[in-house]
Amino acid sequence: MSVSLLLDMAASSNPDRLAVVCDEVRWTTSELSARVRGAAAVIANSGARSVAYVGTGGHLLPLLIFGSAGAGIPFTPLNYRLAADSLAELMARLEDPLVVCDEEYHDIVVTSGARIMRSSALAGAAAAAVDPVTDAEPPDPDQVAVVLFTSGTTSKPKAVELSHNNLVSYITGTVEFDSAEPADAALICVPPYHIAGIGAALSNLYAGRTMVYLRNFDAARWIELVAGASVTTATVVPTMLDRIVTELERSGARLPTLRTLAYGGSKVALPLVRKALDLLPEVGFVNAYGLTETSSTIAVLGPEEHRAAHHCADPAVARRLGSVGQPVPGIEVQIRDDHGRVLPACATGELFVRGPQVSGRYTGIGSVLDDEGWFPTKDVAMLDADGYLFIGGRSDDTIIRGGENIAPAEIEDVLVEHPAVREVAVIGVEDAQWGQTIVAVVVPADGVAPDPEQLRDYVRAGLRGSRTPDRVVFRDSLPATPTGKVLRRALVDEYGPQPAADVAVNT
What pTM was computed for the model? Predict the structure, then answer.
Protein backbone atom coordinates (compact mmCIF):
# COMPACT_ATOMS: atom_id res chain seq x y z
CA MET A 1 0.00 0.00 0.00
CA SER A 2 1.33 3.43 -0.98
CA VAL A 3 0.93 6.57 1.12
CA SER A 4 -0.95 7.92 -1.93
CA LEU A 5 -3.83 5.67 -0.95
CA LEU A 6 -4.31 7.68 2.26
CA LEU A 7 -5.03 10.79 0.19
CA ASP A 8 -7.20 8.86 -2.27
CA MET A 9 -9.33 7.53 0.59
CA ALA A 10 -9.71 10.99 2.12
CA ALA A 11 -10.62 12.63 -1.20
CA SER A 12 -13.14 9.92 -2.05
CA SER A 13 -14.78 10.00 1.38
CA ASN A 14 -15.17 13.76 1.77
CA PRO A 15 -13.98 15.74 -1.27
CA ASP A 16 -15.38 19.11 -0.12
CA ARG A 17 -13.92 19.08 3.39
CA LEU A 18 -11.39 21.84 4.04
CA ALA A 19 -8.09 19.95 4.22
CA VAL A 20 -5.30 22.56 4.34
CA VAL A 21 -5.12 26.08 5.74
CA CYS A 22 -1.83 27.99 5.51
CA ASP A 23 -1.69 31.77 5.43
CA GLU A 24 -3.93 32.64 2.44
CA VAL A 25 -4.12 29.09 1.10
CA ARG A 26 -7.38 27.16 1.53
CA TRP A 27 -7.55 23.72 -0.13
CA THR A 28 -10.34 21.20 0.08
CA THR A 29 -9.43 17.54 0.00
CA SER A 30 -10.33 17.31 -3.70
CA GLU A 31 -8.29 20.44 -4.47
CA LEU A 32 -5.30 19.00 -2.62
CA SER A 33 -5.70 15.75 -4.55
CA ALA A 34 -5.81 17.59 -7.89
CA ARG A 35 -2.72 19.63 -7.06
CA VAL A 36 -0.90 16.49 -5.91
CA ARG A 37 -1.57 14.85 -9.28
CA GLY A 38 -0.17 17.94 -10.96
CA ALA A 39 2.87 17.97 -8.67
CA ALA A 40 3.48 14.29 -9.41
CA ALA A 41 3.54 15.09 -13.13
CA VAL A 42 5.99 17.99 -12.62
CA ILE A 43 8.26 15.80 -10.51
CA ALA A 44 8.09 12.83 -12.87
CA ASN A 45 8.83 15.03 -15.91
CA SER A 46 11.90 16.48 -14.19
CA GLY A 47 13.65 13.12 -14.47
CA ALA A 48 14.82 13.35 -10.87
CA ARG A 49 15.30 10.21 -8.77
CA SER A 50 14.40 11.92 -5.49
CA VAL A 51 12.88 15.17 -4.19
CA ALA A 52 14.45 17.38 -1.52
CA TYR A 53 12.75 20.34 0.10
CA VAL A 54 14.30 23.31 1.87
CA GLY A 55 11.66 25.49 3.44
CA THR A 56 9.25 26.01 6.28
CA GLY A 57 6.60 23.63 5.00
CA GLY A 58 2.99 24.60 5.43
CA HIS A 59 0.80 23.56 2.48
CA LEU A 60 3.94 22.62 0.54
CA LEU A 61 4.58 19.67 2.84
CA PRO A 62 1.52 17.51 2.00
CA LEU A 63 1.82 18.60 -1.63
CA LEU A 64 5.39 17.28 -1.80
CA ILE A 65 4.85 14.16 0.32
CA PHE A 66 2.01 12.94 -1.88
CA GLY A 67 3.38 14.41 -5.11
CA SER A 68 6.66 12.54 -4.67
CA ALA A 69 4.76 9.35 -3.83
CA GLY A 70 2.66 9.81 -6.96
CA ALA A 71 5.85 10.13 -9.01
CA GLY A 72 7.21 7.01 -7.34
CA ILE A 73 10.34 8.58 -5.84
CA PRO A 74 11.48 9.34 -2.26
CA PHE A 75 10.92 12.68 -0.57
CA THR A 76 13.40 14.32 1.82
CA PRO A 77 12.64 17.56 3.70
CA LEU A 78 15.90 19.16 4.86
CA ASN A 79 16.66 21.37 7.82
CA TYR A 80 16.34 24.88 6.42
CA ARG A 81 18.31 26.25 9.39
CA LEU A 82 21.52 24.59 8.21
CA ALA A 83 24.34 26.52 6.54
CA ALA A 84 24.83 26.25 2.77
CA ASP A 85 27.74 23.80 3.00
CA SER A 86 25.85 21.51 5.39
CA LEU A 87 22.78 21.50 3.14
CA ALA A 88 24.95 20.80 0.10
CA GLU A 89 26.53 17.85 1.91
CA LEU A 90 23.13 16.33 2.65
CA MET A 91 21.86 16.95 -0.88
CA ALA A 92 24.94 15.20 -2.26
CA ARG A 93 23.91 12.07 -0.37
CA LEU A 94 20.54 11.93 -2.16
CA GLU A 95 20.07 10.20 -5.51
CA ASP A 96 19.84 12.77 -8.33
CA PRO A 97 17.49 15.12 -6.44
CA LEU A 98 15.13 17.84 -7.57
CA VAL A 99 15.57 20.46 -4.84
CA VAL A 100 12.42 22.46 -4.14
CA CYS A 101 13.03 25.54 -2.01
CA ASP A 102 11.14 28.47 -0.54
CA GLU A 103 12.16 31.82 -1.98
CA GLU A 104 14.17 32.90 1.08
CA TYR A 105 16.44 29.82 0.78
CA HIS A 106 17.07 29.95 -2.96
CA ASP A 107 20.40 31.77 -2.73
CA ILE A 108 21.59 29.25 -0.13
CA VAL A 109 20.77 26.08 -2.05
CA VAL A 110 21.59 27.30 -5.56
CA THR A 111 25.31 27.03 -4.78
CA SER A 112 24.94 23.25 -4.37
CA GLY A 113 24.87 22.65 -8.11
CA ALA A 114 21.71 20.56 -7.88
CA ARG A 115 18.65 21.24 -10.06
CA ILE A 116 16.54 23.80 -8.19
CA MET A 117 12.88 24.70 -8.36
CA ARG A 118 11.24 27.40 -6.28
CA SER A 119 8.25 26.33 -4.17
CA SER A 120 6.03 28.92 -5.81
CA ALA A 121 6.94 27.61 -9.25
CA LEU A 122 6.16 24.04 -8.26
CA ALA A 123 2.82 25.00 -6.71
CA GLY A 124 1.90 27.03 -9.79
CA ALA A 125 2.90 24.28 -12.19
CA ALA A 126 1.03 21.69 -10.12
CA ALA A 127 -2.17 23.76 -10.27
CA ALA A 128 -1.81 24.34 -14.02
CA ALA A 129 -0.65 20.86 -15.07
CA VAL A 130 -2.41 19.83 -18.29
CA ASP A 131 -1.38 16.18 -18.02
CA PRO A 132 -1.56 15.32 -14.32
CA VAL A 133 -0.67 11.88 -13.06
CA THR A 134 -3.94 9.98 -12.60
CA ASP A 135 -3.19 6.28 -13.09
CA ALA A 136 0.49 5.79 -12.32
CA GLU A 137 1.62 2.34 -11.29
CA PRO A 138 1.56 2.21 -7.47
CA PRO A 139 5.02 1.80 -5.94
CA ASP A 140 6.14 -1.37 -4.21
CA PRO A 141 5.08 -1.10 -0.53
CA ASP A 142 8.68 -1.76 0.48
CA GLN A 143 9.94 1.08 -1.72
CA VAL A 144 11.32 4.10 0.16
CA ALA A 145 8.73 6.86 0.49
CA VAL A 146 10.49 9.32 2.80
CA VAL A 147 14.13 9.82 3.78
CA LEU A 148 14.82 11.86 6.91
CA PHE A 149 18.21 12.85 8.26
CA THR A 150 18.74 12.40 11.98
CA SER A 151 19.63 15.51 13.96
CA GLY A 152 23.27 14.49 14.25
CA THR A 153 23.65 15.92 17.77
CA THR A 154 26.45 13.47 18.59
CA SER A 155 27.62 12.20 15.17
CA LYS A 156 27.22 12.63 11.42
CA PRO A 157 23.51 12.66 10.48
CA LYS A 158 22.22 9.30 9.23
CA ALA A 159 19.66 9.07 6.43
CA VAL A 160 16.68 7.08 7.72
CA GLU A 161 14.68 5.30 5.03
CA LEU A 162 10.95 4.95 5.68
CA SER A 163 9.04 2.74 3.27
CA HIS A 164 5.44 3.18 2.18
CA ASN A 165 4.60 0.14 4.28
CA ASN A 166 6.27 1.61 7.38
CA LEU A 167 4.33 4.87 7.16
CA VAL A 168 0.97 3.35 6.18
CA SER A 169 1.29 0.76 8.96
CA TYR A 170 1.81 3.55 11.48
CA ILE A 171 -1.22 5.53 10.26
CA THR A 172 -3.66 2.63 9.87
CA GLY A 173 -2.52 1.09 13.16
CA THR A 174 -2.95 4.24 15.27
CA VAL A 175 -5.60 6.39 13.50
CA GLU A 176 -9.22 5.57 12.74
CA PHE A 177 -10.13 6.61 9.20
CA ASP A 178 -12.47 9.64 8.88
CA SER A 179 -13.01 9.60 12.64
CA ALA A 180 -12.81 13.37 13.21
CA GLU A 181 -15.81 15.58 13.75
CA PRO A 182 -16.66 17.91 10.81
CA ALA A 183 -15.28 20.99 12.63
CA ASP A 184 -12.09 19.35 13.94
CA ALA A 185 -8.87 21.20 13.09
CA ALA A 186 -5.26 20.41 13.90
CA LEU A 187 -2.64 23.13 14.37
CA ILE A 188 0.71 21.96 12.98
CA CYS A 189 3.85 23.89 13.88
CA VAL A 190 6.53 21.18 14.08
CA PRO A 191 9.33 21.47 11.49
CA PRO A 192 8.71 19.75 8.13
CA TYR A 193 12.01 17.86 8.34
CA HIS A 194 11.01 16.17 11.60
CA ILE A 195 9.15 12.85 11.62
CA ALA A 196 6.36 14.54 13.60
CA GLY A 197 5.79 16.87 10.63
CA ILE A 198 5.44 13.95 8.24
CA GLY A 199 3.23 12.05 10.66
CA ALA A 200 0.98 15.06 11.26
CA ALA A 201 0.32 15.51 7.54
CA LEU A 202 -0.56 11.85 7.04
CA SER A 203 -2.51 11.20 10.23
CA ASN A 204 -4.68 14.34 10.22
CA LEU A 205 -5.61 13.92 6.58
CA TYR A 206 -6.52 10.26 7.21
CA ALA A 207 -8.56 11.14 10.31
CA GLY A 208 -10.41 13.92 8.49
CA ARG A 209 -9.14 16.99 10.36
CA THR A 210 -8.40 20.32 8.73
CA MET A 211 -4.66 20.94 8.86
CA VAL A 212 -3.87 24.50 9.99
CA TYR A 213 -0.19 25.32 9.45
CA LEU A 214 1.92 27.78 11.42
CA ARG A 215 5.15 27.87 9.45
CA ASN A 216 7.23 29.79 12.01
CA PHE A 217 6.40 29.18 15.65
CA ASP A 218 5.54 32.10 17.90
CA ALA A 219 3.67 31.45 21.14
CA ALA A 220 1.37 34.48 20.86
CA ARG A 221 0.56 33.72 17.23
CA TRP A 222 -0.03 30.05 18.12
CA ILE A 223 -2.59 31.09 20.75
CA GLU A 224 -4.27 33.46 18.26
CA LEU A 225 -4.54 30.69 15.68
CA VAL A 226 -6.06 28.25 18.15
CA ALA A 227 -8.83 30.76 18.79
CA GLY A 228 -9.14 32.14 15.26
CA ALA A 229 -9.22 28.79 13.48
CA SER A 230 -11.17 26.98 16.23
CA VAL A 231 -8.34 24.48 16.61
CA THR A 232 -9.28 21.30 18.45
CA THR A 233 -5.94 19.47 18.53
CA ALA A 234 -2.28 20.42 18.32
CA THR A 235 1.20 18.95 18.67
CA VAL A 236 4.20 20.80 20.12
CA VAL A 237 7.75 20.09 21.22
CA PRO A 238 8.87 20.88 24.80
CA THR A 239 10.34 24.31 24.08
CA MET A 240 7.10 25.33 22.40
CA LEU A 241 5.03 24.07 25.33
CA ASP A 242 7.17 26.09 27.72
CA ARG A 243 6.68 29.27 25.68
CA ILE A 244 2.94 28.68 25.27
CA VAL A 245 2.49 28.21 29.03
CA THR A 246 4.54 31.35 29.71
CA GLU A 247 2.45 33.37 27.23
CA LEU A 248 -0.83 32.04 28.62
CA GLU A 249 0.26 33.06 32.12
CA ARG A 250 1.29 36.50 30.88
CA SER A 251 -1.76 37.22 28.75
CA GLY A 252 -4.48 35.36 30.62
CA ALA A 253 -5.72 34.01 27.29
CA ARG A 254 -7.81 30.86 27.16
CA LEU A 255 -8.14 28.09 24.57
CA PRO A 256 -11.84 27.17 24.62
CA THR A 257 -11.87 24.99 21.48
CA LEU A 258 -8.69 23.02 22.22
CA ARG A 259 -9.48 19.46 23.27
CA THR A 260 -6.14 17.70 22.82
CA LEU A 261 -2.55 18.91 23.13
CA ALA A 262 0.18 16.40 22.33
CA TYR A 263 3.80 16.96 23.22
CA GLY A 264 6.95 15.03 22.38
CA GLY A 265 10.23 15.17 20.51
CA SER A 266 12.29 15.15 23.71
CA LYS A 267 11.75 14.82 27.43
CA VAL A 268 9.50 17.38 29.13
CA ALA A 269 10.28 18.40 32.71
CA LEU A 270 7.56 17.33 35.14
CA PRO A 271 7.13 20.81 36.69
CA LEU A 272 6.21 22.12 33.23
CA VAL A 273 3.76 19.26 32.65
CA ARG A 274 2.09 19.90 36.02
CA LYS A 275 1.87 23.64 35.35
CA ALA A 276 0.28 23.01 31.95
CA LEU A 277 -2.25 20.59 33.46
CA ASP A 278 -3.21 23.13 36.13
CA LEU A 279 -3.42 25.97 33.62
CA LEU A 280 -5.50 24.02 31.06
CA PRO A 281 -7.57 21.48 33.03
CA GLU A 282 -10.10 21.16 30.22
CA VAL A 283 -7.43 20.09 27.69
CA GLY A 284 -6.50 16.44 27.24
CA PHE A 285 -2.70 16.14 27.26
CA VAL A 286 -0.91 13.40 25.32
CA ASN A 287 2.74 12.48 25.69
CA ALA A 288 3.84 10.87 22.42
CA TYR A 289 7.18 9.07 22.23
CA GLY A 290 8.74 7.90 19.00
CA LEU A 291 11.80 7.99 16.78
CA THR A 292 12.48 8.77 13.16
CA GLU A 293 13.31 5.10 12.61
CA THR A 294 9.90 4.04 13.93
CA SER A 295 7.81 6.27 11.64
CA SER A 296 6.83 8.46 14.62
CA THR A 297 4.92 7.47 17.76
CA ILE A 298 5.42 4.08 19.39
CA ALA A 299 4.12 4.83 22.91
CA VAL A 300 1.46 7.18 24.28
CA LEU A 301 0.42 8.50 27.68
CA GLY A 302 -3.15 9.64 27.13
CA PRO A 303 -5.34 12.38 28.65
CA GLU A 304 -7.03 10.23 31.30
CA GLU A 305 -3.68 8.81 32.37
CA HIS A 306 -2.35 12.36 32.76
CA ARG A 307 -5.33 13.33 34.90
CA ALA A 308 -5.14 10.16 36.98
CA ALA A 309 -1.43 10.65 37.73
CA HIS A 310 -1.64 14.38 38.44
CA HIS A 311 -1.92 14.99 42.20
CA CYS A 312 -2.47 11.26 42.82
CA ALA A 313 -1.65 10.08 46.33
CA ASP A 314 -0.58 6.64 45.11
CA PRO A 315 3.16 6.96 44.26
CA ALA A 316 2.99 4.22 41.62
CA VAL A 317 0.22 6.04 39.74
CA ALA A 318 1.71 9.51 40.25
CA ARG A 319 5.02 8.31 38.83
CA ARG A 320 3.36 7.54 35.48
CA LEU A 321 3.25 11.26 34.73
CA GLY A 322 6.96 10.93 34.01
CA SER A 323 6.44 7.99 31.66
CA VAL A 324 5.71 7.93 27.93
CA GLY A 325 2.77 5.63 28.52
CA GLN A 326 2.19 2.28 26.85
CA PRO A 327 3.06 0.97 23.38
CA VAL A 328 0.66 1.73 20.53
CA PRO A 329 -1.08 -1.15 18.70
CA GLY A 330 1.30 -3.24 16.61
CA ILE A 331 4.40 -2.30 18.58
CA GLU A 332 6.30 -4.74 20.79
CA VAL A 333 8.95 -3.59 23.27
CA GLN A 334 11.77 -5.25 25.15
CA ILE A 335 14.30 -3.98 27.66
CA ARG A 336 17.69 -5.69 27.25
CA ASP A 337 20.93 -5.63 29.21
CA ASP A 338 24.40 -5.11 27.73
CA HIS A 339 24.58 -8.81 26.82
CA GLY A 340 21.28 -8.79 24.92
CA ARG A 341 19.29 -10.58 27.60
CA VAL A 342 15.66 -9.50 28.02
CA LEU A 343 15.17 -7.91 31.43
CA PRO A 344 12.15 -8.27 33.72
CA ALA A 345 9.77 -5.46 34.68
CA CYS A 346 11.29 -2.52 36.58
CA ALA A 347 14.84 -3.28 35.38
CA THR A 348 16.72 -0.62 33.40
CA GLY A 349 18.44 -1.37 30.10
CA GLU A 350 18.27 -0.52 26.39
CA LEU A 351 14.91 -0.27 24.65
CA PHE A 352 14.31 -2.52 21.65
CA VAL A 353 11.15 -2.22 19.53
CA ARG A 354 9.53 -4.28 16.79
CA GLY A 355 6.56 -3.77 14.46
CA PRO A 356 5.58 -3.07 10.85
CA GLN A 357 6.05 0.70 11.27
CA VAL A 358 9.67 0.19 12.38
CA SER A 359 12.23 0.77 9.64
CA GLY A 360 15.68 0.60 11.19
CA ARG A 361 17.19 1.09 7.72
CA TYR A 362 19.74 3.75 6.73
CA THR A 363 21.01 4.83 3.33
CA GLY A 364 24.52 3.46 2.79
CA ILE A 365 24.32 1.31 5.93
CA GLY A 366 21.31 -0.93 5.43
CA SER A 367 19.12 -2.44 8.09
CA VAL A 368 20.24 -2.55 11.73
CA LEU A 369 17.37 -4.80 12.82
CA ASP A 370 18.45 -8.04 14.44
CA ASP A 371 17.53 -11.48 13.08
CA GLU A 372 14.11 -11.32 14.73
CA GLY A 373 13.29 -7.80 13.50
CA TRP A 374 14.08 -5.87 16.71
CA PHE A 375 15.41 -2.32 16.45
CA PRO A 376 17.94 -1.03 19.03
CA THR A 377 16.77 2.47 19.94
CA LYS A 378 19.88 3.38 21.97
CA ASP A 379 17.49 4.79 24.58
CA VAL A 380 17.89 3.80 28.21
CA ALA A 381 14.49 2.66 29.42
CA MET A 382 12.45 0.80 32.01
CA LEU A 383 9.10 -0.96 31.69
CA ASP A 384 7.16 -1.08 34.95
CA ALA A 385 4.93 -3.93 36.15
CA ASP A 386 1.85 -2.28 34.59
CA GLY A 387 3.44 -1.86 31.17
CA TYR A 388 4.28 1.86 31.40
CA LEU A 389 7.46 2.83 29.61
CA PHE A 390 9.98 5.21 31.20
CA ILE A 391 12.77 6.72 29.06
CA GLY A 392 16.02 7.64 30.79
CA GLY A 393 17.86 9.33 27.93
CA ARG A 394 20.34 8.14 25.33
CA SER A 395 22.77 5.37 26.19
CA ASP A 396 25.53 7.48 24.60
CA ASP A 397 24.93 10.10 27.31
CA THR A 398 25.59 7.71 30.20
CA ILE A 399 28.19 9.10 32.60
CA ILE A 400 30.81 6.66 33.91
CA ARG A 401 32.21 8.11 37.11
CA GLY A 402 34.61 5.98 39.13
CA GLY A 403 33.44 2.89 37.26
CA GLU A 404 29.76 3.55 38.07
CA ASN A 405 27.22 4.10 35.28
CA ILE A 406 25.03 7.14 35.91
CA ALA A 407 22.08 8.20 33.75
CA PRO A 408 21.95 12.02 33.44
CA ALA A 409 18.13 11.91 33.56
CA GLU A 410 18.30 10.47 37.07
CA ILE A 411 19.95 13.66 38.32
CA GLU A 412 17.99 16.00 36.04
CA ASP A 413 14.68 14.66 37.33
CA VAL A 414 15.70 15.63 40.87
CA LEU A 415 17.26 19.01 40.12
CA VAL A 416 14.42 20.29 37.94
CA GLU A 417 12.05 19.95 40.91
CA HIS A 418 14.05 22.59 42.84
CA PRO A 419 12.10 25.89 42.76
CA ALA A 420 15.20 27.82 41.69
CA VAL A 421 15.71 25.65 38.59
CA ARG A 422 13.87 26.23 35.30
CA GLU A 423 15.84 23.82 33.09
CA VAL A 424 18.83 21.56 33.59
CA ALA A 425 21.09 19.29 31.58
CA VAL A 426 23.59 16.98 33.25
CA ILE A 427 26.73 15.95 31.36
CA GLY A 428 29.90 14.00 31.99
CA VAL A 429 33.28 15.53 31.25
CA GLU A 430 36.65 13.80 31.12
CA ASP A 431 38.62 13.60 34.35
CA ALA A 432 41.98 11.93 35.03
CA GLN A 433 40.99 10.70 38.50
CA TRP A 434 37.34 9.67 38.08
CA GLY A 435 37.15 8.95 34.33
CA GLN A 436 34.31 11.46 34.14
CA THR A 437 32.91 14.04 36.51
CA ILE A 438 29.32 15.24 36.69
CA VAL A 439 28.47 18.77 35.59
CA ALA A 440 24.95 20.15 36.04
CA VAL A 441 24.20 22.95 33.58
CA VAL A 442 21.32 24.93 35.08
CA VAL A 443 19.00 27.59 33.68
CA PRO A 444 17.75 29.40 36.81
CA ALA A 445 14.13 30.30 37.35
CA ASP A 446 13.26 33.89 36.48
CA GLY A 447 14.65 36.40 38.95
CA VAL A 448 16.52 33.77 40.98
CA ALA A 449 20.26 33.39 41.61
CA PRO A 450 20.69 29.86 43.04
CA ASP A 451 23.60 28.85 45.25
CA PRO A 452 25.52 25.98 43.57
CA GLU A 453 26.19 24.28 46.90
CA GLN A 454 22.50 24.36 47.82
CA LEU A 455 21.67 22.64 44.53
CA ARG A 456 24.35 20.02 45.15
CA ASP A 457 22.96 19.41 48.63
CA TYR A 458 19.46 19.11 47.16
CA VAL A 459 20.61 16.32 44.84
CA ARG A 460 22.56 14.62 47.62
CA ALA A 461 19.43 14.56 49.76
CA GLY A 462 17.46 12.85 46.99
CA LEU A 463 20.11 10.53 45.58
CA ARG A 464 23.20 8.83 46.91
CA GLY A 465 26.42 10.84 47.07
CA SER A 466 27.95 9.45 43.89
CA ARG A 467 25.11 11.09 41.93
CA THR A 468 25.81 14.57 43.32
CA PRO A 469 27.12 16.96 40.62
CA ASP A 470 30.79 17.78 40.97
CA ARG A 471 30.09 21.19 39.49
CA VAL A 472 27.03 23.35 38.93
CA VAL A 473 27.22 26.02 36.23
CA PHE A 474 24.58 28.48 35.05
CA ARG A 475 23.37 29.60 31.62
CA ASP A 476 20.54 31.77 30.30
CA SER A 477 19.36 28.91 28.08
CA LEU A 478 20.37 25.42 26.95
CA PRO A 479 21.55 24.87 23.38
CA ALA A 480 18.95 22.73 21.64
CA THR A 481 17.65 21.60 18.28
CA PRO A 482 14.39 23.13 17.00
CA THR A 483 12.60 20.04 18.36
CA GLY A 484 13.94 20.65 21.85
CA LYS A 485 16.72 18.07 22.04
CA VAL A 486 19.55 19.45 24.16
CA LEU A 487 22.87 19.63 22.33
CA ARG A 488 24.85 17.87 25.04
CA ARG A 489 28.00 17.66 22.93
CA ALA A 490 28.09 21.47 22.75
CA LEU A 491 27.87 21.60 26.55
CA VAL A 492 30.63 19.02 26.94
CA ASP A 493 32.84 21.05 24.62
CA GLU A 494 32.12 24.20 26.60
CA TYR A 495 32.44 22.94 30.17
CA GLY A 496 35.00 20.18 30.08
CA PRO A 497 37.48 18.90 30.74
CA GLN A 498 38.46 21.18 33.60
CA PRO A 499 41.76 21.52 35.48
CA ALA A 500 41.83 19.23 38.51
CA ALA A 501 42.02 22.18 40.93
CA ASP A 502 38.63 23.41 39.72
CA VAL A 503 36.79 20.15 40.32
CA ALA A 504 34.92 19.61 43.56
CA VAL A 505 34.86 16.04 44.88
CA ASN A 506 31.69 14.40 46.16
CA THR A 507 31.64 13.37 49.80
Answer: 0.89
